[in-house]
Description:
By secondary structure, this protein is an alpha/beta fold. It has helices at 7-21, 40-51, 79-102, 106-124; strands at 27-32, 61-67, 72-77, 140-141. The longest helix has 24 residues, at 79-102. This is TLP18.3, Psb32 and MOLO-1 founding protein of phosphatase.
Amino acid sequence: xxxxxxxxxxxxxxxxxxxxxxxxxxxxxxxxxxxxxxxxxxxxxxxxxxxxxxxxxxxxxxxxxxxxxxxxxxxxxxxxxxxxxxxxxxxxxxxxxxxxxxxxxxxxxxxxxxxxxxxxxxxxxxxxxxxxxxxxxxxxxx
Length: 142
């Protein structure tokens, strides 16, 4: 990941995803893109469709699609979570992350956003009974 994230930080982000999902049926994915030159939003949606859309029982998966080199971040929530938190939640989260990215705080910004998303997922999709992990917690790359 070069100057953006160390391997240790990536491992810690996976742990943050696990922690954020612990008390919710929601799922969080992070994809780091270093290949897309333009049309980042289109690419993010394609990644979302592949990794998240329609892959959780309650349609409550969230994708953080990051292209550090292009200074681009897209957050996409599947319809179940988006209907609960509205666009204002995503806008606030996006503003917080990009503000921290501008300061070079890549790891902390992503970790905080993951944990905040977990808190929202817990409010709207608390665990009732078993809580199987429906999506991988591993960070994906392209």
